[in-house]
Design a protein that fits this description.
Structural class: mainly alpha
Shape: globular
Largest sheet: 2 strands, antiparallel
Radius of gyration: 18 Å
Strand order of the largest sheet: 1-2
Number of strands: 2
């Protein structure tokens, strides 16, 4: 394994452990708690797709007339990931992006999708993130998470985009969370079958094959440039901290809801 890759993995391991062992997972006791989690997490699912497309735009030719751009190996890596993320299959075999699959999961368990849908509608109409956040009443932690991702996207530094895509978004789902979801599924099988499927696909596709492809992509883009690797490490650390902050926001909202109903 590339020595720079190993150095980043070592530097971020404490943050990864904070995420994997975050108290938000133990706070999720029932489907209502899970709904809160999904209403925050869906923003990360959406901006992951935006990060992915930024990489595709930077690493391949997506304009006409077409011209060869970058290394063919890197083009292959990002295009293969795009196909898997943007055109995966649901449990019925229908083609869907992972974001659309996530919305299906939210709708199945009656989680509120109005915020993320309003956010996207406003952003699509005027491209103004602040207006979209305000109109949709996006939670501050989700807003901060998306803002950071788009700061990296707007840097136009493909090696930073690749770094946070690779290390900030690789498989961080703990076994405990899967156990909680499985327990809820046993009690309410008709409410979270789609979400259970989403998690299983995420682990199978994102955490396995795509993770290896992304590691190779980051190694290709940073190459032997020490400055690139240093910047990549710092961006990854910031990305993981934003994930921790997002989970903190979910935890606080779950606790607040429980207090409100006297639990």
């Amino acid at each position: 394994m590339n020595e720079h890759i190993e150095k980043i993995k070592k530097a971020i391991e404490p943050l990864r452990q904070q995420i994997i062992n975050h108290k938000v997972y133990s706070a999720i006791k029932d489907v209502n708690d899970l709904k809160v989690f999904m209403q925050y997490h869906v923003y990360a699912v959406w901006d992951f797709m935006s990060l992915l497309k930024a990489l595709q735009n930077n690493l391949t030719c997506t304009t006409v007339p077409w011209f060869p751009k970058g290394l063919a190996d890197t083009r292959f890596l990002i295009n293969e990931i795009v196909v898997g993320e943007e055109c995966d299959v649901d449990s019925d075999g229908n083609r869907k992006s992972h974001f659309e699959l996530y919305l299906d999961a939210m709708q199945q368990c009656s989680a509120d999708t109005s915020q993320i849908e309003k956010f996207i509608d406003v952003l699509k109409s005027n491209g103004d993130f602040n207006a979209a956040f305000t109109a949709s009443d996006t939670p501050q932690e989700a807003r901060n998470f998306v803002d950071f991702t788009f700061k990296i996207i707007n840097s136009n530094k493909d090696y930073l985009q690749s770094a946070i895509f690779t290390f900030g978004r690789e498989d961080l789902i703990p076994g405990m969370f899967l156990s909680i979801v499985n327990d809820i599924h046993k009690n309410l099988p008709d409410s979270i079958t789609v979400f259970k499927y989403y998690l299983e696909r995420h682990i199978e596709v994102d955490g396995g094959h795509h993770s290896n492809l992304a590691l190779q992509m980051t190694a290709n883009l940073c190459g032997t440039d020490e400055q690139y690797w240093q910047e990549a490490e710092q961006a990854t650390i910031e990305s993981l901290q934003k994930r921790i902050d997002l989970w903190d926001g979910v935890y606080k909202q779950i606790v607040k809801n429980k207090i409100a109903v006297g639990v």
